[in-house]
Specification:
By secondary structure, the protein is α/β, with parallel strands linked by helices. It folds into 2 domains: 2-213 and 391-404, 3-Layer(aba) Sandwich (Rossmann fold), CATH 3.40.50; 221-388, Glycogen Phosphorylase B (Rossmann fold, 3-Layer(aba) Sandwich), CATH 3.40.50. 37% of the residues lie in helices and 18% in strands. It has 14 helices and 14 strands. An 8-stranded mixed sheet has the order 3-4-2-1-5-6-7-8, sandwiched between helices.
Amino acid sequence: MNICVISDFFPPYRTGGAENIALNLTKKFIDKGNRVVVITTNAEIQSNHIHKLAFENIEVYQIGFRPIEKVSPFLGVYNPFILKTLKGFLLENKFEIAHLHNIHNCFSFGIISLLRKFGVRIFFTAHDSYILYSGKYSQGVHEKSMQSLPSVDFRINSLQSFKKNWKRFNPFKSIYVNLQLKKVEKIVCVSRELETFLNSNEIHKTITINNGIESVPKTFEDDINNFRNKLKLTPNDSIVLFIGRISGEKGIDIIIKLAKTLEQKRPDIKFLVIGKEIDDLKLSNVINFGWLEQDEINIAYSSAKATLVPSMYLDPFPTVILESMRASTPVIISSYSGGKEAIDSNINGFVVNPFDTDLIRKLIIRIVDDKYLHKTLGKSALKKFNDCFTIELCSDKYLNLFHESN
């Protein structure tokens, strides 16, 4: 097949969860005998110019475009400037299939009509709620709701959306996006939770394909010991890991609350926070780093007793879950995250209400103190990863979808 992968951002210019998923899928599509070209943007290139480069044996075309924050809610819906440049590219290059990832910052949803004019079959991967919503979707997430699996109303309340995201609010977005998405072959959702969100807001033609990531070699014991020495840990110290954006939505406040609770009672439990350094953090049991190289992050997972993912919003399918499972490290994950679909409570981790910090604290202590439980959970986590979440399995599902829709 002749495939064009289109994403607002793509490595090496920018890396992130969706960008790395797009990269790994692209590499697998090529490995399986398809011709694949990537079209993306780069703010450092002159506007509307196209720069070609080879990245990891991938043919990448970067279009010069600098997003403008003040008008992004509108240009993210329809961007005539970048679409004009893309039209010229499509006149010279023919594709059977376009695989769209995040396009709401630069390319805009107007790209769908443009691709249809060129007879391209379009598959759209929904990575988050930005398709319809103007921010992180947290309507219905309430601190007073202490149910283990609280229900969330996925139907967008426009008034609430405006109040919370008024700087990014576009009243015409959902109407236009819905019309455009009717023109695609299929909308792939990275979790059933995200699919439910879209269906609740009249977006159909959906299917769920969970993300997949590459397998990595097992971490050596010496690497773990060196990492622990770098953190200045004693042999009795245990690591509980948080990796991600340092924000309330990602649950950093929950991490700090847990650390304060355990600082005196269990000083052997250390919270390792990787993502960004937090100012004025004066907790003896919190070790805080900025971003590390991926090899060192893999060692961090292998060094941890558990990974915490206490998201306070519809966090579609965080890659950290899969990276932790790949390292045989159990995950304690928020019931608001779509990633809970990867976790079977009491088998390979735990699904919890993130506001129930008493339960999370008890689970952390239980995993740390019970070596057999930790080992059993970790073994099941690795098996679930190998059975369900490798990039090999994920790419096969996409390619089968492309063929079946022909």
